[in-house]
Amino acid sequence: AALTVRFLTRRFIGEYGDMEFIYSHNLTVDGREILFHIWDVPNSQHAEEGSSEEKRIQWADSFVLVYSICDRASFNILPLKIQFIKAAKEGQNQEKVPIVIVGNKRDLHHRRAVSSEEGRLLALSLDCGFYEVSAAE
Q1: Whole-model pTM over 0.90
Q2: For a tag on the chain, would you pick the N or C end, based on fewer CB atoms within 10 A?
Q3: How far is it, in rounded angstroms, from Cα 85 to Cα 117?
Q4: Domain enclosing residue 72, as ranges
């Protein structure tokens, strides 16, 4: 949620509840007006494979999966989530689904539990993009 709010408002808010929200936002990219619909789903420590997860996957055209570099559990769940997304999306039309892995809280490097290299290697092994950012900064 912090990254979504930062993207939408350029402000940082540190605390969020466990609510899902869908945001809409217009942005000009390379001279073209792009309308983003962002379904912001709270963090879960297990791979949810129910109908609500399936609904989200079918709704989306691309995915940004965020983990905390200070929380190994949030990183460890990514391979299962990505495999679930790919099975649901790529099984339908055989096109590669755009997925980006984002390590957040780069500003808290002194509390790092997941190295940048681990994030890059995971993204490479799963054919995803990779970034490390700080929503706070």
Answers
A1: no
A2: C
A3: 23
A4: 1-132
